[in-house]
């Protein structure tokens, strides 16, 4: 099971703060070859509907696994905590 968290405007736009994803679920198992990457997870979530597609666009998100910023090639493991959030700006 992977815990997926959404933060800031992303959480508001998706009306979703958290998901639990079982990598053995047929929805994800069909995508699996030998490993499931963070990018594959992002793509699966983006394919949910138009709202998710708009909000989960590649390049518009920061992604973290177990509280460490990583790229889309990061291989997910059972028990990981994944977080998606918009880039932070400040002044």
What does this protein look like?
The chain is of the alpha+beta class and 91 residues long. The protein has a single domain, classed as Beta-grasp domain (Ubiquitin-like (UB roll)), CATH 3.10.20. Helices cover 29% and strands 22% of the residues. Strand 3 and strand 4 form a beta hairpin. The longest helix is centred in the middle third of the chain and has 9 residues, at 38-46. The protein is globular and about 40 Å long.
For the largest beta sheet, what order do the strands appear in spatially?
A: 2-1-5-3-4
Q: What CATH architecture would you give?
A: Roll
By DSSP, the count of extended strands is 5
Task: Give the oligomer, counting copies of the same chain as homo and different chains as hetero.
Answer: single chain
SSE order, one letter for each helix or strand: EHEHHHEEE
The CATH class assignment is Alpha Beta
Mean pLDDT equals: 88
User: What name does CATH use for the topology?
Assistant: Ubiquitin-like (UB roll)
- Tally of domains: 1
Instruction: Describe the sheet with the most strands.
Output: 5 strands, mixed
